[in-house]
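Predicting holo structure, FE2/S2 (inorganic) cluster bound.
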Amino acid sequence: MTKDDRLDAILAAHAGREGALLPILHDLQAEFGCVPADCYQPIADALRLSRAEVSGVVSFYHDFRDAPAGKHVIKLCRAEACQSMGGAEMIARLERALGMKIGETKGDVTLEAVYCLGLCACAPAAMVGDRLVGRASSERIEALVAEVSA
Amino acid sequence: MKVWVPCDAAAVACGADEVAAAIASAAGLRGEEVEIIRNGTRGMIWLEPLVEVERDGVRHGFGPMTPEDVPALFEAGDHPKALGPVEDIPFFAKQTRLTFARCGRTDPLSLADYEAGEGWRGLRRALDLGAEKTVEEVTTSGLRGRGGAGFPTGIKWKTVAGAEDAQKYIVCNADEGDSGSFADRMLMEGDPFCLIEGMAIAGLAVGATKGFIYIRSEYPHAIRTMVAAINAAQSAGIIGDSLMGQGPAFDLEVRVGAGAYICGEETSLLNSLEGKRGMVRAKPPLPALEGAFGKPTVVNNVLSLAAVPWIMTHGGAAYAEFGLGRSRGTIPIQIAGNVKQGGLFETAFGMTLGTLINEIGGGTASGRPFKAVQVGGPLGAYHGPDDFDLRVCYEAFADQGGLVGHAGFVVHDESADMLALARYAMEFCAIESCGKCTPCRIGAVRGMETLDRVAAGDREAIELLHELCEVMEKGSLCAMGGFTPYPVRSAIRLFPQEFSRIEEAAE
Ligand SMILES: Cc1cc2nc3c(=O)[nH]c(=O)nc-3n(C[C@H](O)[C@H](O)[C@H](O)COP(=O)(O)O)c2cc1C
Ligand code: SF4
Ligand code: FES
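Done. Tokens:
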């Protein structure tokens, strides 16, 4: 399937749905790893919106990317419960160990902040790909990163 | 042998899947017949993965388990992680579990388990009583919104019931963004049919035929479980064209957020649901009258809706017997952060803060002295030991310049840097502001800068910070900008020396 076919398939799957824009954007990101800017106009046409409205929605939400992330996305919780268990120090150690900062992509790895994963009673918390990590340490996360990127 | 290993995200994050796999392989090696049930969590998160083994009809707990601890489960003699009968563990035994009665006991997606644990009784009774009496029952219970604002649920439902429209909606707010909160997640992963039942009752009560559950994208496990539970309830004919084959139509759909804290605010959530930017709407119009897609809409938190099946089963008066003052019923408290025994503790309103932290929570995890607890999420105030006799209820915390909110309690030990936490509060507001009003959008950024100046020893900065907090509190449209001053001011009030330390050092 070409890129246009894949986009059309996603748009068709949500045809007639109330408030379809967010579900469409989620599906697009699952398909392409991001919401490509050249999709704004076709989405706008399908939902009878302006291109600016679609672009405004994409930019409002933290989840939507304009370019794909690294193959391995590591989300580190910065919120208060994780801070109380040394989360900020853990993040700093991990940044040093991986030689990159939150918000950056290096090779296959993207480091991101997240604001609470609902794992506040087993803090600090992180997510390595789909995998949740409670009682996290920088060593443990480094080991998991090494494991998935091996 | 019958064994339970929780499938809750917190248990999984602590290694429950690995433990379950180790149990299966150990059983295989020994040729023993083992039935492994993936239950929800009991909420004793510090013990996760908490494995339960049935012995003489009683479920015994073992935790926190590692794969290495598994072989000993099959051997005679004392297990090093043995906890005794799981429901006798004081943290569990001391609770009044109404909303969470089934959570941790059952297989979350088993309709048979749900039915056996009083499931669908509330809905059946609502179908018998009819819409008006159902709203009355919820009003009698005294239930107030568990999402933070504490608005009486019965009154909200009555407004929507009274609105004339062919299309009305029930929207469940499962955006749970507060640090320290995980009760919504735990319920959706551990007892999803309870939420479905609560929403079905709400639909029946107000005449809504469609419900949306708006779940934050940070909760992939909860999303999966809710979708599977909705499918199961549809296939069983419980929801869909007719509630239980005898009532009106009511169907449900999960919608996924996209990483915006502000979408927990109900009008922002509605915009997001409609496919728009999550900007906060001015009120009026109330969502009850013009909500989702402009139609009359009940917006309720997961826990508000999940309290309803118990209320309908046992009666509003029975629920109202629990509690204190105008805070009726039970509150699922989430105690988290730097605390020895973190988890979910459902209890009647009225427990003191000190009891909660020292007895239930067991003090700090680090063993260092307690310093402060932030109550009600990132917009809630910090409280010190002087507040230990405060009782957990809406009024008492409001009187102290704080809030109970969604009842997340985040404990900090003496190593906490209050200036850094105050700055974080402003930073979080700057990151998550919807951008609609200036005091919040710009004020939060100025707040970070001003706190940096405080840290650098600027004498005038504190005064400026107080003025800024005043402007944010008075001039913001919603509680994001309006309450961010709570953690900031309370931190300064409790620990003034931390906001002038550099200045002293410089002198
Ligand atoms: C910034 C902000 C964030 C909020 N986040 C949530 C949330 O995550 N979950 C929730 O149920 N309510 C949240 N609320 C409260 C909702 O606006 C609303 O009061 C609630 O969903 C109503 O349901 P209830 O009456 O059952 O509590 C938030 C409010 C504000 C101002
Ligand atoms: S206070 Fe902040 S989040 Fe609330 S409406 Fe104003 S800008 Fe938006
Ligand atoms: S604060 Fe980090 S998981 Fe909740």
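Residues 72-149 of chain A form a domain with the Glutaredoxin fold (CATH 3.40.30.10).
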